[in-house]
Amino acid sequence: MTGDQFTDRLLAQGESKQVEFKASVEPMDVIGKTVCAFLNTDGGVIVIGVDPKGKPNGSATKAQAEALSKYLRRTITPKVLYDVSFDGTTGGNVITVGVPVGPDRPYVFEGAVFTRKGARVSAADALVLRELVEVSVQSTKRWERRPSSGLEIDGLDRELLTETVRRAEDRRGIPFDNSRAPVAVLTQLSLLQSGQLTNAADVLFGKKVAQRLPQTRLRAVCYTTDRAGDFLDEQLYEGPAFRLLEDAMAFLKRHVSIAAEFREGQLSRESKPKYPFNSLREGLVNALVHRDYAAFSGSVSVSVYTDRVEIWNTGKLPRGISPRDLPQASHSSILVNPDIAHAFYLHELMERVGRGTYKIAQECRDFGMRLPEWKNMGAGVRLTLFAAKAGRPTIDLNSRQHEFLASLQPSDEIRVPEYVERFGQGITDRQARRDLSHLENGGFLVRHGAGSKTTYVRTEKIP
After folding, report:
1. Average pLDDT of 188-202?
2. Count: domains in the chain
3. Domain around 321
4. Which of 360, 402, 410, 430 falls between 20 and 30 A from 299, CA-CA?
5. Quick one: which of 236, 241, 272 has its CA closest to 257?
6. Looking at the predicted structure, is the pLDDT value of residue 2 above 50?
7. What contacts 173, CB < 8 A, 6 or more positions away?
8. In this predicted structure, what is the pLDDT of residue 163?
9. Percent of the residues in the chain that have a pLDDT greater than 70, as a whole number
């Protein structure tokens, strides 16, 4: 598939409670009201430059995307992490606006508060406004905004802060009122509250953060087998979260083996790591950004086994999001630590709101790997990436599945009842779901939606 796969999937799924299509970027105030409403409710994605069925109409331009981004930053308060991007899809160019669930409600667009019910955007009445304010009061108590006891400006990694500002201005196009004044920068990033540096400031830029917050350490272990026991290497890293990411990736690159393959008809060999490094990096970013830092006995851990890599962090998936939702193209984006997430975005370590887990799953499919697995594990969340097999992976298929794959073209969709009717040969819905899940695990299908609305989309992989 060419173009932006994520946006292609959104267009194929159609409009929903969290996906809205717009024909044009004008009038921009309509877009602004919708973004504001998404922030005040469950988040979502706006795709601009398409008809009601999701077909690009040719109206979207990169200049419009840049103008819209500046307009939204100017008209929506308080400031929040969302992205405006210019995407090339299989049908043409579109603009997408990814909006998370807003952590600091109520959000205001040009002096008014908007909310969303179903697909309808409306101004908030007094009751809804009161509920939003109550949520906002709770957000001020979150751990990342509490003062970090003992942290002073001199205790910050100023070089790292300067680099974040530079990337924000040069690469993200986000200006600072006074980029050379640390106090002004930290205030604008909400990392300085009432004259005190926050826990988020410590996590991101504290030179000796582990002395104040020992739970910020990251442990990395490489084991000799597929079980915990004897190990080849063990490291305990500490420092700002950006440095932890660098250290953990260096550890993985030392211990992830590279397989060399000779393919039929080729004289040269192909070198391929057992895991896609982009997915490993994305998994680490998610662990560092979304973990529960308030758990003082917690941490982030990276475990390398002979057949898999596990990334674990304290915390749990936000309410309303299950592990099955994470590989899907559309699910709520709920920022557990929005101030930390915003800094990672500015530092170019987070690309798109709500797309990280989808990107991991898609890259694993493209790599010929088993789908990654997310699990709530008591006090934490564990991501497991399974090693790619040497050579071309194989999967045993029954006659129904072979007939099904031969009948569909890439991007074709099917639901369970249709599969039963066309290929089922008298099987039950339960067996049909097993057939389709087996094909999904093999990379032949991608699942979208849940329950009765679940659809399976044919990929380009051939058996």
Report:
1. 96
2. 4
3. 214-386
4. 360
5. 272
6. no
7. 66, 69, 70
8. 97
9. 93
User: Domain boundary at 141, 160, 186, which?
Assistant: 141
Kindly state whether residues 63 and 117 are assigned to the same domain. yes
3-state class of 183 per DSSP? helix
Of 219, 160, 194, nearest to 343 (Cα)? 160
What SS3 class is residue 444?
Answer: coil
In a shared domain, residues 304 and 429:
no
Q: How many helices (H) and strands (E) does the chain have?
A: 15, 21
pLDDT band at 71 (very low <50, low <70, confident <90, very high): very high
pLDDT digit string, tens, across residues 390-405: 544 456 788 889 889 9
Is residue 391 domain-resident? no
User: What's the whole-model pTM score?
Assistant: 0.78
Check residues 433 and 352 and name the one with the higher pLDDT: 433
| Within a domain: 463 | no
CA dihedral 315, 318, 322, 323 (to 10 degrees): -40
CA–CA separation, 8 and 309 (whole Å): 29
**Dmax of the chain from CA atoms?**
72
Helix (H, G, I), strand (E, B) or coil at 231: strand
Three-state secondary structure call for residue 131: helix
What percent of the chain stands above pLDDT 90? 59
Nearest alpha-carbon partner for 40 in 122, 147, 110: 122
By CB atoms closer than 10 A (0-12, 13-18, 19+), residue 208 is: middle
Encoding tokens for residue 195? 């004259």
Question: Is 234 found in the same domain as 133?
Answer: no
* Phi/psi at 85 (5° precision): -135, 155
Could you tell me which of 213, 161, 196 has the C-alpha nearest to residue 182?
161
Give pLDDT, residue 321. Answer: 87
Contact assessment for residue 223 and residue 231, using Cβ atoms and an 8 Å cutoff: yes
Half-sphere exposure of 438 (CA within 13 A, CB side): 17
